[in-house]
Design goal:
Blueprint (H helix, E strand, L loop, with lengths): L5 E5 L5 H8 L8 E4 L1 H17 L4 E7 L3 H13 L4 E5 L4 H10 L8 E5 L7 H6 L6 H14 L4 E3 L5 H8 L4 E4 L18 H6 L4 E4 L1 H4 L4 H13 L1
Parallel strand pairs: 1-2, 1-8, 2-3, 3-4, 4-5, 5-6, 6-7, 7-8
Bound molecules: the ligand O=c1ccn([C@@H]2O[C@H](COP(=O)(O)O)[C@@H](O)[C@H]2O)c(=O)[nH]1.
The ligand O=c1ccn([C@@H]2O[C@H](COP(=O)(O)O)[C@@H](O)[C@H]2O)c(=O)[nH]1 binds next to strand 8.
Length: about 230
């Protein structure tokens, strides 16, 4: 299989030292890096700048969700760090999404702005408990449509929804899919999952993979094995 899907390694580590132990072994031509809430809270913006300085494309996964003014300013602060992609929660609503988009208008090369639809850890039942009566796929579609109307570049969804979203939002709408699990690996708290090979076959642009790499005995080798499985 040959693929244009890019892997972003989720650097879900407790501190910069542990994260750099893996980053030192990675090639920015072969993968991007995702910094989420744990590492950003521990290591801060300086760590993100360090990854950018090492030529990695960085996905700042802080999932901003607040009033429009606050989210717009947070997105702008992310752009100042030089990240490649930043995200917000689509459930923040149209005005919040539009404010986030507008905050990037003056950047010659802004980060991709992506909206989280339904977390890949959630099932239909989890959604129903929060008062949402439709199933996960319907909610993903509704929020992706809203994100597209607001001018965002794409969404975070599960690979299981990729086909539906490609038809509804077009091939240029960027799909970012966590919940990627190589055959036989532990699902953990993820629920709407797919293997890297199946996800790449769908033509998904960004595959986010964390624990199957970071918790492996040899993380760099685990990443390489996934790359090989995608290019075989
Ligand atoms: O819907 C979502 C949105 C974000 N994530 C993040 O992706 C990684 C997945 O890590 P794994 O270890 O491969 O499960 C993690 O950082 C999440 O915060 C997500 O899983 N689902």
């Amino acid at each position: 299989m040959s693929t244009s899907s890019r892997i972003f390694v989720a650097l879900d580590y407790a501190d910069a030292k542990q994260a750099l132990a893996l980053v030192d072994q990675l090639n920015p031509q072969l993968c991007g890096l995702k910094v989420g809430k744990e590492l950003f809270t521990a290591a801060g913006p300086e760590f993100v700048k360090e990854l950018v300085a090492r030529d990695f494309d960085v996905f700042l996964d802080l999932k901003f969700h607040d009033i429009p003014n606050t989210v717009a300013k947070a997105v702008k602060a992310a752009a100042e760090l030089g990240v490649w992609m930043v995200n917000v929660h689509a459930v923040g609503g149209r005005r919040m999404l539009e404010a986030a988009k507008a905050a990037l208008a003056d950047y010659p090369k802004p980060p991709l702005l992506i909206a989280v639809t339904v977390l890949t850890s959630m099932t239909d039942d989890d959604l129903h408990e929060t008062g949402i009566e439709v199933n996960a796929a319907e909610q993903v579609l509704r929020l992706a449509d809203l994100a597209k109307q607001a001018g965002l570049d794409g969404v975070v969804c599960s690979a299981q929804e990729a086909n539906m979203l490609q038809q509804a939002c077009g091939q240029d709408f960027v799909l970012v899919t966590p919940g990627i699990r190589p055959q036989g690996s532990d699902q953990g708290d993820q629920r709407r999952v797919m293997t890297p090979e199946q996800a790449a076959q769908q033509g998904i642009q960004v595959l986010v993979i964390g624990r199957p790499i970071t918790q492996a005995e040899q993380p760099a080798a685990a990443l390489k094995a996934i790359h090989v499985s995608l290019t075989a």
